Amino acid sequence: MSRKAKDKRPNLPKVREVSLDDRYLTLRIVCLVLMICVAVTMFAVGISSLLSKEPGWQEISVSSAADAPIASEFSLTYNLGAAGASATAEAKALTSLYTTAMNSAYEIFSTSEEYEDVQNLYYLNSHPGEVITVDAALYAALEAFSGSRLQFYGGVYRLYQNIFLAADDLEASYYDPALDESTAEYLQELVAFASDEEAVSLALLGGNTVCLCVSEEYAAFAAEYGLTNFVDFSYLTNAVIADYVADELIAGGYTLGILSSMDGFHRSLGDSGESYSLSVYALSDSEAYPAATLTYSGAAAVVSLRVFALDDDVQLQHYTYADGTLRHPYFSLETGEQLAALDALTVYSNSLGCTEVALQALAAYIAPELDPLALAGLGYVYCDGSTIHYNDSAVTITDNYEGTSLEKQIVLDD
Question: Which of 204, 232, 236, 287 is the most exposed place for a label (fewest CB within 10 A)?
Answer without folding.
Answer: 287
